[in-house]
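Recall the central idea of this unit: under ordinary conditions, the amino acid sequence of a chain determines the structure it adopts. In this exercise we apply that idea directly, starting from the sequence alone.
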Amino acid sequence: MSVREYNKREESINQCRKYSKTMLTMRDLGIKEVSSNCQMKNGTQVFRLPFKDAWGWSIEFATYSSGYVRRLVTYHTRGAKCWQINKRIDGEETYYKVGDNLYRKFTSRTCKLIPLHGDRIEYLLKFILRNYFVAKPKYNHTINMEMLDRAAKYTHGEFGFDSCDSDTQDDILKRLQG
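Accordingly, the structure predicted from this sequence is:
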């Protein structure tokens, strides 16, 4: 066995390990594979999260043998629309003639393809964990007089924070703090 064949075999074994480890993690999180037979023949895997988005639609992702990883947005009457998840990289620079001796440079952006199957599944899992399973920090805002006046006007019908009694002021402060 040559060194090249050995390295290729080791890479294949590493990809299988990544795939099985990632699929076990997905199973533990409740992420299901929902690929159809046709999709599996084409080398496409579709995964569905165990919860729905804010509008009640399922959240699905797909990995393709071509190297793409996409978020599928499906509606009940229409087909699926896809959002690229792959990292974006700068492509070729092209020059277009705009006028006499004037040229405009345009740099296209393309997706960085992920050629190995284990790497695609691992990339998808990291994306899902980062965007759907990690709690987002709350917005920390500073409370100023304008915010207090607005809260007094819209929640209590007062002219401003200063015109409220102390109980109302305490209620407004509690609402804004937490």
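The longest strand covers residues 88-99.
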